[in-house]
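Work through this protein:
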Amino acid sequence: MHGVGGTSAQEMLGDPRVQLITGDDTAACYRRTDDADAEQRPDDYRGEPVREAYCWSNLTSGNGARALWLILLPFMVANLAHWMRPAAPAEHRAQRIYDVLVRLLALTLTVLLAAAACEVALDLTAWQCAGTTACNADKSWMGFLSPDNSGWWSAPGRRLALAATVPLAVIGFLWWLSRRTWSAYESASPPPRQPGTSRGTPVAERTALSREGFWYGRRVVARLRAAHTTAGVLTVGTVLLAAGAKADGRAGSAALAVTGRALTVLVALLAVTTLVVVWRTARNEAAPDVRSDRLVVRVLPFAALAVLVLIAVHTGWARTGARSHGALPGAAAFGGIAVFQGLLVLALALTAWVLQRAARDDARTALCGMGGPAVALLACAVGGVLSGGVAQRFADWLDGDATPGQEHAPIPGPPVLLSWQASVLPVLLVVVAGVAVLAAVRVVLVRGRVARDVPGLYDPREHLDRRRIKGIAGAIARAGLTDAAPVLVAAIAAVTLVLGAGAVAGAWLTDLAPGRATDGAPPVVHAAAETAESLGSWLMSAGVILLITMGRRAYRDHAARRTIGILWDVGTFWPRAAHPFAPPCYAERAVPDLTWRMATWTERFDGRLVLSGHSQGSVLAAAALWQLDPVTRSRVALLTYGSPLERLYGRWFPAFFGPPALTGLHREMDDWRNLWRFTDPIGGPIRLTCEDGGRIDEGPLRDPLAFGRTLYHPLPAQILGHGDYQADPVFRRVRAELIARLGPDLPGQRPADAGADSRADQGSSGRSSA
């Protein structure tokens, strides 16, 4: 199994002639053409392994349109926070609280997205610019909305009702995308398990990844999709109601005021129902949850849509003397969302602290169990930057050369909180730059220490080239930065929390005392504030443009598409348990694929397997092994190389890949070997001690294989780092040992056309598959 970035079946099997054995264009198992019918010719493969490759790259980076999913980055990061909880016992009460808090925080991100779309389409475009001659004069596409033309759409309420189709289309697109991927990913059912008992694995070592329904999230994603769609539609309706209430207050229409209150009650009832659905939508992993929630999945979003139509009619109703002036009411909603998100993150941190105290093994847990809250905070920050960046950039485009919100500007611009967020962004970037400088200094210092030990790894008779030593030591030092990632995440999260609180406080003070916060300050302070605000506005806009540009380039450039796909290989391994609009989980297709293939092949042919996985492929391999029944799992040996199982997943997701879980996996399978290098920035050792005194880790492997030019390496050997482990002689030796280990005790092979319950002669030789 290949790792991040993907590898073709031809490269994995070392043969240009390959044949699909099972699967489709998205993910499939391949063999060499000569080995396609190996089971039909057992005498030709007596004692010879049959190699088979599982290619899953099209699940992540195979489609260029997936690169545009970069705009869903906040949702993906929030979903990761769900899986980063500490490794406390499953029955601990705080586990459910942690999950509920993450789901609520994910819901606020959907509301923030809908509010940002309303800010652009309803407030900036339909209310501010379309209602101001100075803004719409040079925009012909906005002419039919201008009050100067006295057209049917020139009424403020009708302009808002028409503009509401834009955020509604955004929400509808996310609903469609989530439902489309839901049908392709979350609907892959696991194979039926054979009865059997584990090898005495304690309860503490049984990870949730071994539960039969873990990779079947069809019902959960469907319920969350309905709830988040409803929340987005209700956000649009709330903005329209707020605008209608302001107009009704001026017009003094009692009938419209009563209608507005009735619609507000309907929105509140649907909002409470949505919160209840999110609160109660917990994962049931004991078995595949095949229940159907048609009342929630179908009725709830369409009920919200029907209420939105009534609100649009109410808002668009003709009101005498109605006009748009200033900004739409409800600008404080962005501040309310930010404060609520901050409170949720703090509650999540407290819950994580309680879980960490009850954790079974926290020796190497990232950030002492605070990884989930820190990542959740970053998800909120990214969501705020994207929403603020879009609003700022769009306002700058609408008002031309002027600056939104400034004196003589044609429009007031976006809410003041977005301006404060723009002002603190440069400070955050300065902190990030400072951390990057410290990381560079660390690389230099580590490189100097490591350089003294590099010559001892090679033949002392070789000529010691200082430049070569420096290059090898530098690769080792840079690879070690991965272990310092928690420090970077902690620093950014802490600064983000402080600056975010400062931005909310600054916006609140500005609303209390209109005018610039630096009025009356010295000229230097005033100039610095203006510079920070302008620079931050451009940086927020540039961040949004950068994501769009990367997505567009990846759509046209295969190399760029593959590079961006690597990000999703790591970020979308986990099921969508918190946010249904996150990019889909490819493992919910890949893990059942692997489980089905291993379970059916061993059952049909009484064979044994060596499962070989590189990088992210090793994570999929481990997840698939946990899904096998104990009898089948005991017939599989595992070979991992460049594996992040302990270095990344074990530290950041301790409840699922912590030392107890990996120990239990090793106990229940035939054997496990892991290859790693000091120069690998992703893979690392498993750090487990076997009960029989043996070892799992083989390494560190020497990299490069030769220091200088030798008889077997006449040209300088390159530093391989994370790639090409197969080029190392240790790889071939270890794989041969695992295959030989499977050989002596193999049961006899069944004929290819034998029934599932027949048994072959136990004295005949068997077959293994690598």
User: Anything to note?
Assistant: The mean pLDDT is 83. The CA atoms of residues 750 and 760 lie 5 Å apart. The radius of gyration is 30 Å.
